[in-house]
Amino acid sequence: MTSVPKVLILGAGFAGLGAARKLAKAPVDVVLVDRHDYHTFQPLLYQVATDILDPETVGHPVREYVDNQPNLRFVTAKVSGIDIAARNVTFEDWEDQTYDYLVVGLGARANFFGTPGADEHAFPLYTLNHAIRLKNHVLEQFEAAVKAPPPEAPEMMDVVIVGGGPTGVETAGAMADLLYVTMARDAPRYPIGNASITLVEHGDRLLRMFNESMSEYTKEALEERGVTVRLGESVAQIDQGSVTLGSGEVINAPTTVWGAGLTTSPLAASLSDDLQHGRVPVGPLLNLAEHPEVYVAGDLAWAKDARSGEVLPQLGSVALQAGEHIGRTIDRTLRKHKDPEPFHYIDKGSMATIGRGAAVGVIPPGLHLTGRPAFLTWGAVHLALLNGADSKTAALTNWFWTWMRHDRPSRVLIHPDEED
Ligand SMILES: Cc1cc2nc3c(=O)[nH]c(=O)nc-3n(C[C@H](O)[C@H](O)[C@H](O)COP(=O)(O)OP(=O)(O)OC[C@H]3O[C@@H](n4cnc5c(N)ncnc54)[C@H](O)[C@@H]3O)c2cc1C
After folding, report:
1. 400 CA → ligand 1 middle, Å
2. Which pLDDT value is given to residue 156?
3. Rounded to the nearest whole angstrom, what is the distance from the C-alpha of residue 9 to the centroid of ligand 1?
4. Distance between CA atoms of residues 415 and 419, nearest Å
5. Cα 332 to ligand 1 centre (Å)
6. Cα 16 to averaged position of ligand 1 atoms, centre (Å)
């Protein structure tokens, strides 16, 4: 039996899956590893947290993405160490793996920037578990609120959201629809509609990746929905039930959502001793200068575009294209058909939703959309990006109930560990 090179891919996110799929016909053995048996479609996590979508619509089985690849084995295991000198990877719950090529796409994680109390009391929104925890917490608050004397009920539903980027804005808009429309209707005798939703952003505008008029539109659309937008404010401390701003003002917050920044895994340090904001610097082929057999892509990588020279943002579209590029590069290197090419990112636009009928988006080469056209475009794009007919159908059905009927079909609280 002749042996073929082994490609070990760490992480089945956008980058890892992109690489895996482009190796389907390559003369290699692919081992794809993730700590979960599902791929998370992070752009829709806020919809799980606010009861619009079920977790299964946003977390899709990894095996379904790669089930037609006989040269690939998918394993669920948690990476604990990477030794690039020894070409060896260790796992918490699996035997060591060696490799000929390594693709690292382990993503990023929430960055609390050392804010006291954030780690213990805030709800980050980066994984499916985070989204389910936030969803359950809000539903538990609601159940507690309808047991409380009516004057106290709204305070139990107050929410503070930290960070005015896409995660904060989309969560704030969806939370407003949930509290002020669905829950207010669910509990007509309780003044849930008096609960406050406060979005805190330390910069001077929301959604900095868009132009100023789109930022202004976003702020107005959120305010119309009942969200209080606090610009130029920092969060100094988070306690159980409250948030203290830099100015010393204390805001009631039984629920604090953290959407303010990213850092990467401590494993990044085993790939480079010159990390840039926690990210691993890579060359034009997305590999390490000293170890060209090691590729890094997605949120973990500090990669520059081959044409513009600009550092690429931490976006799903960048991660997917970079992963695919790595898969093609390894394939080309092995087949010696063509020389590998430096990575150039094709920007297909960016979008964010604010709530029913409201969104912002930029579609290259310069089409700026707001309002209903942006909202409909956002829906069509995300439907196309979701994997599997089952997830697409579920998303479409739930969006119909949410935005046409103001209902939230997923607002059920499930505690599997509880005795019935
Ligand atoms: C709330 C939110 C909204 C977003 N919205 C958008 C959007 O609208 N548009 C857009 O383009 N981008 C968006 N992004 C960014 C986008 O989701 C990321 O850029 C993209 O997921 C990065 O892909 P990745 O493959 O690098 O990492 P990920 O997709 O995070 O994948 C990393 C994988 O590694 C696995 N992993 C991590 N550590 C270990 C370990 N120790 N052992 C084993 N496995 C491990 C994880 O389980 C995960 O599956 C959003 C992100 C968030 C959090």
Report:
1. 27
2. 95
3. 15
4. 9
5. 27
6. 10
Residue nearest atom 48 of ligand 1, based on CA coordinates:
13
Treating both helix axes as pointing N-terminal to C-terminal, what angle do 166-177 and 212-224 enclose, rounded to 10 degrees? 20
From the CA of 11, how far away is ligand 1's center (Å)? Answer: 9
Q: Which residues pair with 41 in a beta bridge?
A: none
pLDDT digits (tens, 9 = 90+) for 307-328: 999 999 999 999 999 999 999 9
Tokens of residue 52, six digits: 């619009």
pLDDT at residue 395 is higher than 70: yes
Of residues 390 and 242, the one with the higher pLDDT is: 242
Indicate if ligand 1 lies below 6 Å from the C-beta of 312: no
Q: What is the mean pLDDT of residues 352-379?
A: 94
- As a whole number of angstroms, the distance between CA 34 and CA 28 comes to 19
Percent of the chain whose pLDDT exceeds 70: 100
Rounded to the nearest 10 degrees, the angle between the axes of helix 316-335 and helix 14-22 is: 30
Does the Cβ of 117 fall within 6 Å of ligand 1? no
Ligand 1 atom nearest to CA at 299:
26
DSSP H stretches of helix in 158-279: 166-177, 184-186, 212-224
**CA neighbours closer than 13 Å in the CB half-sphere of residue 186:** 19
**Atom 38 in ligand 1: residue holding the nearest Cα:** 106
Residue 153 has pLDDT above 90, yes or no: no
CA-nearest residue for atom 19, ligand 1, is 315
Which helix (DSSP H) or strand (DSSP E) does residue 79 occupy?
strand 79-83
pLDDT digits (tens, 9 = 90+) for 366-378: 899 999 999 999 9
Exposure of 418 by Cβ count < 10 A (0-12 exposed, 13-18 middle, 19+ buried)?
exposed
- Distance (angstroms) between ligand 1 centre and the Cα of 109 equals 8
Compute the mean pLDDT over every residue in the chain, rounded to the nearest whole number.
95
Instruction: Write down the pLDDT at residue 2.
Output: 59
Q: What is the mean pLDDT of residues 338-343?
A: 90
Query: What are the E-state strand segments in 223-320?
Result: 227-231, 235-239, 241-245, 250-253, 255-258, 262-264, 280-281, 294-296, 301-302
For 153, the token pair is 């009920």
Regarding the beta carbon of 138 and ligand 1, being less than 6 Å apart is answered no
Does 13 contact ligand 1 (Cβ within 6 A)?
A: yes
Delineate the domains of the chain, giving CATH numbers in brackets. Answer: 6-35+77-110+263-335 (3.50.50.60), 118-260+349-405 (3.50.50.100)
| Cα–Cα dist 262/281, whole Å | 16
DSSP assignment letter at 183: I
